[in-house]
Design goal:
about 45% helix, Arc Repressor Mutant, subunit A, alpha/beta, D-Maltodextrin-Binding Protein, domain 2, 12 strands, 3 domains
Length: about 300
């Protein structure tokens, strides 16, 4: 089996900065966008790539009719280098996570869930677990628990999760139609068909929600979509300000319904969506003390 000394590796490997510049330029097929990613000038990227080509004795890019293109050698070189940088990044994140104090817990969750459900309850967790410091981030996507510095997550989804994750069902989601009292005073809403006279606020990541509600209400035709919002807290604020009707999880609007800023004009037409909210972490990590304390608090 062939082995290399540190001197051999230093002598045979090109500059790490040049490799990074090539990977960024190869991914974007643009020196300018690579420069933006690396926070250097376009000229610096160009010089680094040129130096790498000289060190290797081969051209990695050519100027084609559509702009920058990878040569055959560049196309073969890019994937293993990209994989190598991703592995280095993952290893670095794992080391950073392993050196974080055991009494710090990094949690990720959906933005509106964090604002509307978790933050009002966080003081209770701290009171019961004063020794655990919580770091909260929000994400609309499923994070890579193996590569990112996150201990646990709360995400919405089905019961199908990646094989390396420990997943526990927390609760289902029931969606209800809400509106401001002022809007309903201008445009009364007494029966499902009256919905067609209103502007329907859309959640951009759940564009099918109104169609599902129309089907549950036995309404014919398609739901006429109004403005679209990325997060539920945006839809809620739009509804409070009378911009239209919103379909939102009922526990997100508990305070607005309680104080009268929003009302449920058709309370008998709540819609339970498939799936629900899950507690997620890497398999095996559910037994760690801080993760276990957080899990027990959630289920209490």
């Amino acid at each position: 089996m062939m082995s290399f000394s540190h001197t051999d590796i230093a002598r045979t490997l090109p500059s790490l900065n040049a490799l990074r510049a090539f990977v960024a330029a190869g991914r974007h097929l643009s020196f300018t966008r690579a420069a933006d990613e690396l926070h250097v000038t376009q000229g610096a990227v160009s010089r680094l790539v040129k130096q790498l080509e000289e060190d290797l004795g081969v051209s990695l890019f050519s100027r084609g009719p559509r702009g920058l293109e990878l040569t055959e050698a560049g196309a073969a070189y890019l994937p293993p280098l990209t994989d190598a940088f991703e592995r280095m990044l993952a290893a670095t994140r794992l080391i950073a996570r392993s050196t974080r104090p055991a009494n710090r817990l990094a949690i990720t969750m959906l933005p509106t869930f964090a604002m509307r459900w978790f933050m009002p309850r966080l003081a209770d967790f701290h009171q019961l677990n004063p020794e655990i410091a919580v770091d909260v981030t929000s994400a609309d996507r499923l994070v890579d628990f193996a590569a990112e510095p996150v201990d646990v997550g709360i995400q919405y989804g089905s019961d199908r999760w990646p094989d390396d994750l420990h997943a526990e069902f927390l609760f289902a989601e029931t969606v209800t139609l809400v509106a401001s009292p002022a809007l309903l005073k201008r445009k009364p809403l007494h029966k499902p068909d009256d919905v067609k006279r209103h502007t329907l606020l859309t959640h951009s990541t759940r564009p099918e929600a109104w169609a599902e509600w129309f089907a549950a209400a036995n309404l014919k035709g398609q739901a006429p979509h109004g403005p679209a919002f990325e997060h539920f807290f945006m839809s809620i604020e739009a509804a409070v300000n009378g911009l239209g009707l919103a379909l939102v999880p009922d526990f997100f609007v508990a305070s607005e319904l309680r104080d009268g800023r929003l009302v449920e004009p058709l309370p008998n037409l709540r819609l339970q969506r498939p799936g629900g909210y899950y507690l997620l972490c890497l398999k095996g990590r559910e037994r760690e003390p801080a993760v276990r304390a957080f899990r027990n608090w959630l289920f209490s």
